[in-house]
Amino acid sequence: MKKQLPVKGVSIFLSAAISVCLYIFFQGLCLAADDMADPIEQLNTVEIVTDRINQINNRLSTLSAVNSDQVAQEFGVGTEDFDKRLTDLRMLRSAHERLLYSITALDTAQKDVISIKERYENYKSRGMIKKAPYTLTFLDTVQEELSNVERRRLNIELTVEALQRELTADNERLQFLEKKKRRLDETLSDSSTKDTTQLKWDSETIGIQLREIKIIIQAKNNEIKRYETEKKLIALQLALLKDQIRVINANLAFDPEDLNSQLNNIQEKRTELRKETERLQSEQEGVEKKWLNAQRDFEKAESQEQRAIAESYLKARAEWRATYQVALELNGRSMLLMDHQAAAWRKRYTMVKGKISLEELKTLRETTQTHISSISQTLQVQQNYLVSLQNLMAGIETKLEDDKMLWAIKQNVSAQLTAARKRLDRWLSYQSVILATDNIEKRLLNEIETRMGRSTIKDHLVDIKGDIVDFWNIEIWTVDKQPVTLRKLAVACLILLLGMAAAKYALSIIRTRFLMKSQFKETTASAVHKLMSYIAYLLVFLFALRMVNIPLTAFAFLGGAIAIGIGFGAQNLINNFISGFMILGERPINIGDLIEVDSVLGKVEEIGARCTRIRTGENIHILVPNSTFLEKNITNWTHSDNKIRTHVTVGVAYGSPVKTVQETLLESVRKAPHVLKYPTPFVLFSEFGDNALIFNVYFWVEIRRIIERREIESNVRFKIDELFSKEGLVIAFPQRDVHLDTLKPLQINIEHGPKN
Q1: Is 489 exposed, middle or buried (0-12, 13-18, 19+ CB in 10 A)?
Q2: Which of 190, 197, 434, 567 is spaced 20 to 30 Å from 396 by Cα?
Q3: Per-residue pLDDT reduced to its tens digit, 500-538
Q4: Under 8 Å between Cβ of 96 and 53
Q5: Is the entire prediction scored with pTM above 0.85?
C-alpha cells in the first residue's frame, strides 16, 4: 500500500519549486543589465561573440520553459511585456550573430587581399600559366571574369551606400533610445512610490534595445570595413585581369579549330531548335483542335456549373495554345540571334587575321552598334513580357488557393498555371540567347574599337580617301534605276562650265571673223549668233549629261516646275522671251537703230532673250522688256535708213523783208556742215506770230549718233545768226505796246514821305 504525501507537504514542495523557477527567471531577466556592463568594443573576436550568443541561447531556453502568465503576475507586469522581452532577447541574439558574421567576413576579406597580392606578384614574375598564342575563347573567359569582378565592384559600391544610409538612421534611433533611457532612469531615481516594478522593467527593455542597436552599428561598421577591403581586392583583381587581357590581345592568333568549335556549338543549338520547332509544329495542330473543341463545349454548356467548368477548360486550352505560339515564335527569333552570334565569331577572327581595313572597321562598328541597340530594345520588351507573365501566374496561383473551388475547375486552373510556367521557361531560355548574343556583340565592338585605336596614319589616310569617295557617291535621287550621285553632278557642272566657256569663245570668233564681215546686217548677225549660242549651250548640256550617264528623265520634274511657274507668274517671262524671237525675226528694230520709247531717245545696243538694252545720249543704259516693242508705239528714227528731215524755226521782227529772210535761211543751211544737199532744203513762212514773223527752214541730215541731229541743228542756227547780222535782219523778241485812252489829262502829284 502506497503512502500518500500530506497536503501540507505538497504545498511546501510546490512553493519551493515556484521559488526556484522565479529565481531562475529573475536571473534571465537581469541578462540585459549584465550584458550592458560589457563595452561594445570588447566584442571584437569570434570567441567572445560566440560565448555571448551561447549565453543568450541558454537564457532564452530557460525563459521559454516558464509559464509567462504566472511570471508576469508575480512581477507585476503584463503578459505582452514578457513576450516582448523574449522578442527583444531574440533580436539581441540576431544582432550578435550578424556581428559574428561581419567579423568572420572581414577576416576572410583581409586574407583574400593577401592571397591576390601573392597571385599578382607571381604573375608579374612568371607571366601567365597558359602560353601564347591565345584564342578568342580564352580571351572571352578572361573577359567574362573581368565583367564579373566589375559587376561585383558596382554591387559593393551600392551596398556601401545603402549601409551608410542605414547607419545614419541607426544612429538617430540610438540617440532617441538613449534619451528615453535617461528620462526613465531619472524618473526611477526620483520616484517616491514603492511600486517601481514597471519602471525598472521598461528601463531594462530599453537597455536591451540599446545593446541591440549598438551591436548592429558595430556589425555594419565591420561590414563597411570588409567592403572597403574587398574594394582593394577587386582593384588588384581588375589590374591583374586587365594586364592579362592586354597580353592576350597582343598575342591573339587565328585558330581555325577554335572558330569551328564555336560555330559547331552554335549549329548544334540551331539543329536542336529546328527539331524542337518541327515537333512543336506537329503538336500545334492537336492543340488547336482541343482549343476549338473547348470553344464548342463552352457554347453548348447549359447549367451554371457546366459553363464554369467549360470556361476554365477553355482558358486552359487558350493558355496552352498561346504557349505553343510563343515557343515557335521564340525559336525562330533564337535561331536568328544565333546567326548573329556565328557572324560575330567570324568577324572577330577576321580581325585577328588583320585582313580588314579601317573603312571596313567603321562600317562594321556601325552595324554592330545597331545590333547592340536592337538587342537592348529587345531586352526591355522581354522584361515587360516577363513581368506581365509573372503577374498572370500570381493571379492563377491566387485562384488555386480557393478551397471552395470545384475539383474539375481546379484541375483546369492548374493546367493554366502549368502552361504559363512553360511559357515562362520559353521566355527565360530566349532571354539567355539574347544575353549571349549581346555579350558577343559587345565583345566584337570592344575589339573593333581596340583595333581602330591601333590604326596607323596610312590607315587614316586610306579611310579619309574612302570617306571622300563615299561623299562623292552620295545618291541625291534615282531615275530609272540609275543613281544620280554628287560626283556625277559635280562632273556634269564642270563639263557644263568648260563647255559653255569653249562654246562662247568659239562663237565670239565666228561672230568677229565671219558674221561681222559678211553681208548680213548687224541685227541679222546678232540673231544668228544668239541662235547658234542657244544650240551650242543645249548641245553642251546634253553632252555633259551623257558623259556622266545622267538620263534626261532626271529633269522631268523641271517640266512640272515650269508649268507651275507659268501658271503662277511666269507669263511675262515667257512673253518677253517669245517677243525677243519675234523682234529678231520681224526686225521692227535693229541693233544700232535710234529709237524713242516713252519720250526717251536712245540707241539700240543689244536685243536679248528677255529685254533690249538701249543707251541714251547721257550714256545711261535702259533695259526695255521685249514685249514693250510689240505692245506700244515706238519711234524708230533709223528703221529704213539714217536720213531724216529736221527743221529750225526762226522769228523775225515785223517789217523785215521776207524774201531776204528766205534767201538768207537757205544760204545758212547750205553753208552749215553735214546738211545734205539732196533732198533740197526749203523754207516755209509759217505764220504771223504775236511778236514776230515765223519761218521754218527744212533740211535733210544723216545721223548715226543720238546727239548728231542736235549738233547739225545747232550749226544751222549759228549760221543763221551770222548771216542775219550781216543782212541787218532782226530776230524778234517778245514786246508789248501800252496805249492810254483818257478823257482828260492825267493829274500827277509828287508827295514826300514822312521825315525821320
Answers
A1: middle
A2: 434
A3: 888 888 877 776 766 566 655 666 666 676 777 778 878
A4: yes
A5: no
